[in-house]
Amino acid sequence: MQSSNTRGTGKFRNLASMKKTKPTILVVNDDGITAPGIKALIEVMQGIGNVVVVAPDGPQSGTGHAITIAKPLRLDKVELYEGVEMYKCSGTPVDCVKLAVNKVFKGKKPDLCVSGINHGLNNSINVLYSGTMSAAVEGAIESIPSIGFSLDDFGHDADFSHCKRYIEKITNQVLKNGLGLGTLLNVNFPRGADIKGIKICRQANAKWAEEFDERTDPNRRSYYWLTGVFQNNDHGEDTDVWALDHGFVSVVPVQFDMTAHHAIPILNTWDLEM
User: What topology does CATH give the domain 15-203+236-266?
Assistant: First the structure.
């Protein structure tokens, strides 16, 4: 276990050199504790370290970094897979990480937090809406090296087998080399087994052009289904969208510091004297 006072230097931490025992790995997701994606991720992590799972009791896709404050949370131990310590949580993916740190690990920190494997991509702007990535971000906020994994397949019968060796490789590299404090990884996989390799990328400048399908209920009241089209406004060949479109695994380093540092000198030229 990582000591709770391992904080603050801003340097990369070599976790593997700090301990000889197997690492403790927190596994979370946003598709729910029974989703096929988290089962695949658990199987990979069992070959790397000691696994503890804390995941939502049902689907929580698109919840972003939401937390539960208006109602109590439930955390129940369950037995789904032999030899795996597992808990289902009534809250959001971020709630899962918070409860894991405070109640399961009792204030100590696991050596790694992995989230996924998500059913559907979390590349580009999707990182802001993703419960999968928000769980990983929460891990990084807690100074836990964290990775989010997603696959370009929404189907319940999605095949995650081709992702496993890449997940193992990336995870072992994080454990060996560490991540800078405040930094985590957003990893996305293309569909299909013909993966060309791994590319370190930047987040593409893209967005969803939302549309709302308006319908009428039996009481003649309108209701809406959110739909839309993904618009890629970025034609660079160093982006996650380009990598995935060309058959590569995309790895984007992400940070939760949302300060637009480049804008500070510009704002300091404004006349803000009162």
Answer: Stationary-phase Survival Protein Sure Homolog; Chain: A, (3.40.1210)
CA dist., res. 113 & res. 138, Å (int) = 9
CB-CB neighbours of 126 under 10 Å: 23
Stretch (H or E) spanning 186: strand 183-189
- Give the start-to-end residue ranges of the domains of the chain: 15-203+236-266
User: Which tens digit of pLDDT belongs to each residue from 7-48?
Assistant: 444 444 444 444 458 999 999 999 999 999 999 999 999 999
- What integer pLDDT is reported at residue 142 of this predicted model? 96
pLDDT at position 20 is 59
User: Which residues, 6 or more positions from 141, have their beta carbon under 8 angstroms from its beta carbon?
Assistant: 256
Rounded CA separation 136/109 (Å) = 14
Q: Which tokens hold the place of 189?
A: 């996989």
Run of H or E including 207: strand 206-216
24-38: buried (b, 16+ CB within 10 Å) or exposed (e) per residue?
bbbbbbbbbbebbbb
Q: Which residues contact 244 (CB under 8 A, 6 or more apart)?
A: 121, 123, 152, 188, 189, 190, 250
The mean pLDDT value for 237-243 works out to 97
Phi and psi at residue 78, in whole multiples of 5°?
Answer: -135, 160
Distance in angstroms (rounded) separating the CA atoms of residues 141 and 68: 17
Interatomic CA distance for residues 145 and 30, integer angstroms: 19
Rg (CA), the chain: 20
CA–CA distance, 27 with 118 (Å, rounded to integer): 12
User: What span, in angstroms and rounded, lies between the C-alpha atoms of 108 and 110?
Assistant: 7
In the numeric block, which tokens belong to residue 104?
């399961």
- Quick one: tokens of 66? 């939401």
